[in-house]
């Protein structure tokens, strides 16, 4: 760097000196011309002809002209000297300014990097930087055969703070918690905000689990003093989970999931601290490691989509199919969604997973339609997609890419997902419904939704949860719930869909109750698309009249 700066300085000085010298030469020529003109004027005024001899005589006989002859050269030399000095000074100024700009640039770049590593609200490290540090720590611990500890802190009842006191006060609470966590951990570990009201603490290296437990105890003590919120004193509480590498997991996301699982277990017990046991069951340990492999599975197309048919009870024809994702793991075989979807939610992969399912489902729907089966494709929509304001535009692009009319797509949304953020979800759902996409409320009756809110939704159908359908033939209560749900759906102008139909008696009872659509193992199990084509051929052969073979 010093050599390049010196070379640059020399180059600038030479350029400036060349420019000053050029103008000094111009001055010398002008001065010489002025001396010549003065000599000619002197000869002319004396009355003699202007010749070289008379000019030379005038120069010798006039001391003033003789002295004037030396002035241009003196000024040229002085100009050269001044030019050298000025060029060095100017070059030094340029070099100084360049160095200052370079320092400012490096400072701005360092600040940009710092801001990219920080959470804008709390000033703690953000999730991306925390995961990078955790990955580096695990790599170093693997080489040095040491241990590190991870703590996940999740505030209890924080959603009520936002609901009752507003988002601004919720932000104040998060800032206060961030300060308390920083004070509790100090220089002993790295504290980060993982998202929402969830925080992480990295203890590297970890000498013993006692240090992890002591850190969790200091966090609990730090959260004990009430948090001043306007005129109120809010008591804070948190559920805390801890995990140790390599005792509980051997990769980054598996360790995070282990700590989060311990935190969730602590939350079910009413809060406090829970440490993952050193000897985890083999199945739990394997499932924790799935998070790290799921991203690769999405990228390498290891996921598969099974389709389960839905049948119209009145027309006795296939109305559509529901897309159900599976994971064909290269070592563990077929993994069901209940085992990896929670991992996707905790690992931040739910958006990628949902996009994969949506693309493949639209591809299958377009293929079925092109081959004479214009069936509706039902796809479960995640909460992350429902809160993404760009989702309707992404969906419109996918429908256009597969040239599939929007009426052939149904998005299924659970009640709990709908109630997460009513304003944002209603906006996204309305935009999607305005495109012509059907909206289905899944697991209806199992959540805590408000009918006043549900009636504002542009929904097309409600799906009665299988927990009510399974026992409706032996439980009058469940039968009454199913019957009332069907009636409520029809009163709101919605189709009623019965899930979990496993026997002919259940199917017959749903027809008598007026249920519009049914699905379940009695109708057809989830199957790959090639098996679905064979199933469709058999269904239409035995259930549909010849003159009405295909859906219009």
Automatic annotation (TrEMBL):
Gene3D superfamilies: 3.30.70.270, EAL domain
Record-annotated GGDEF domain positions: 146-279
Residues annotated as transmembrane: 23-45
Keyword Metal-binding annotated: no
Superkingdom to which the source organism belongs: Bacteria
InterPro entries: Cyclic-di-GMP_PDE-like (IPR050706), EAL_dom (IPR001633), EAL_sf (IPR035919), GGDEF_dom (IPR000160), Nucleotide_cyclase (IPR029787), Rev_trsase/Diguanyl_cyclase (IPR043128)
SUPFAM superfamilies according to UniProt: EAL domain-like (SSF141868), Nucleotide cyclase (SSF55073)
UniProt keyword list: Membrane, Transmembrane, Transmembrane helix
Region forming the signal peptide: none
Pfam families: EAL, GGDEF
Keyword Transmembrane helix among record annotations: yes
Boundaries of every EAL domain copy: 287-540
PANTHER family (alphabetical): CYCLIC DI-GMP PHOSPHODIESTERASE PDEF, SIGNALING PROTEIN YKOW
Protein name: Bifunctional diguanylate cyclase/phosphodiesterase
Organism: Salinisphaera aquimarina
Lineage of producing organism: Bacteria, Pseudomonadati, Pseudomonadota, Gammaproteobacteria, Salinisphaerales
């Amino acid at each position: 760097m010093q050599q390049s700066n010196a070379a640059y300085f020399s180059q600038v000085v030479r350029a400036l000196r060349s420019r000053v010298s050029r103008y000094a030469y111009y001055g010398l020529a002008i001065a010489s011309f002025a001396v010549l003109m003065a000599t000619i004027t002197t000869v002319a005024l004396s009355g003699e002809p202007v010749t070289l001899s008379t000019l030379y005589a005038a120069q010798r006989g006039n001391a003033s002209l003789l002295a004037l002859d030396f002035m241009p050269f003196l000024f040229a030399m002085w100009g050269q000297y001044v030019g050298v000095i000025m060029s060095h000074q100017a070059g030094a100024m340029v070099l100084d300014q360049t160095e200052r700009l370079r320092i400012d640039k490096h400072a701005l770049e360092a600040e940009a990097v710092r801001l990219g590593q920080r959470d804008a609200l709390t000033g703690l490290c953000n999730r991306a930087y925390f995961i990078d540090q955790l990955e580096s720590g695990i790599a170093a611990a693997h080489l040095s055969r040491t241990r590190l500890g991870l703590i996940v802190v999740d505030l209890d009842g924080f959603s009520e703070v936002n609901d009752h006191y507003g988002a601004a006060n919720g932000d104040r609470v998060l800032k206060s918690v961030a300060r308390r966590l920083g004070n509790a951990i100090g220089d002993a570990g790295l504290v980060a905000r993982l998202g929402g009201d969830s925080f992480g603490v990295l203890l590297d290296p970890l000498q013993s689990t006692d240090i992890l437990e002591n850190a969790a105890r200091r966090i609990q003590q730090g959260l004990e003093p009430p948090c001043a919120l306007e005129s109120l004193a809010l008591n804070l509480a948190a559920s805390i989970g801890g995990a140790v590498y390599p005792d509980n997991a051997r990769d980054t996301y598996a360790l995070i999931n282990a700590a989060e699982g311990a935190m969730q277990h602590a939350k079910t017990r009413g809060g406090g601290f829970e440490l993952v046991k050193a000897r985890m069951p083999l199945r739990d340990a394997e499932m924790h490691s799935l998070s790290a492999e799921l991203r690769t599975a999405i990228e390498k197309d290891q996921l598969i989509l099974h389709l389960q048919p839905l049948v119209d009870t009145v027309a006795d024809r296939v109305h559509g199919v529901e897309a159900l994702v599976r994971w064909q793991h290269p070592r563990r075989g077929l993994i069901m969604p209940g085992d990896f979807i929670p991992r996707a939610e905790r690992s931040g992969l739910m958006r990628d997973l949902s996009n994969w399912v949506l693309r493949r489902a639209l591809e299958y729907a377009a293929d079925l339609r092109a081959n004479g089966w214009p069936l509706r494709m039902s796809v479960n929509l995640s909460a992350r997609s429902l809160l993404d304001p760009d989702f309707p535009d992404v969906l419109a692009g996918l429908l256009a890419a597969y040239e599939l009319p929007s009426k052939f797509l149904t998005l299924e949304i659970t009640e709990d997902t709908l109630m997460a953020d009513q304003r944002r979800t209603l906006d996204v759902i309305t935009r999607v419904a305005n495109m012509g996409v059907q909206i289905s409320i899944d697991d209806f009756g199992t959540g805590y939704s408000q009918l006043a809110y549900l009636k504002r939704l542009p929904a097309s159908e409600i799906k009665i949860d299988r927990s009510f359908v399974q026992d409706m033939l032996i439980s009058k209560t469940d039968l009454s719930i199913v019957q009332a749900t069907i009636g409520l759906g029809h009163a709101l102008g919605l189709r009623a869909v019965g899930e979990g139909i496993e026997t002919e008696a259940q199917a017959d009872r749903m027809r008598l109750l007026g249920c519009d659509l049914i699905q379940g193992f009695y109708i057809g199990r989830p199957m790959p698309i090639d098996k679905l084509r064979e199933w469709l051929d058999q269904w239409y052969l035995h259930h549909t009249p010849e003159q009405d073979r295909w859906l219009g």
